[in-house]
Design goal:
The longest helix is centred in the first third of the chain and has 36 residues. Helix 1 packs antiparallel against helix 2. This protein has two domains: about 60 residues; about 60 residues, Nucleotide Exchange Factor Grpe, Chain A, domain 2. It is an alpha+beta fold and about 120 residues long.
Length: about 120
């Protein structure tokens, strides 16, 4: 007991537990980020069946694939990997194909999709 009549050991213990819990949470989040990045690396090099399984697993923890096919190209959300000419002016500026899917983790962009965009011939 301290001079003012309070029990400081209980306070220190609670604070220590919170500090350890915060450190463990920070470590777990850092490890999760590293594992998600490793999965994205593997996904880019995998066969179609393995890609589907990795995407399914990532989706189960809140990391979803982003494919922009048919959307209006937006350089703030998409990375242009190429263009494809079209005579149909209604397609101009739309995403023709997603070359490499993007990924979001609960709404936070991990990487933008790389897309092919229709351009007027």
């Amino acid at each position: 007991m301290s001079a003012d009549g309070t029990d400081r050991t209980g306070q220190a213990s609670e604070s220590g537990v919170e500090t350890i819990a915060d450190e463990l949470l920070d470590q777990a989040l850092a490890e999760r980020r590293a594992l998600v990045q490793l999965c994205l690396y593997a996904l880019d090099r995998a066969s179609a069946g393995v890609v589907a399984r990795i995407e399914e697993g990532l989706s189960s923890i809140g990391v979803v694939a982003v494919r922009a096919d048919g959307q209006r190209f937006d350089p703030s959300r998409h990375e242009a990997g190429g263009t494809v000419p079209t005579d149909d002016l209604s397609l101009q500026g739309l995403v023709a194909e997603t070359e490499v899917p993007g990924f979001c983790d609960r709404g936070r962009v991990l990487r933008a999709p790389i897309v092919t965009v229709y351009t007027a011939r």
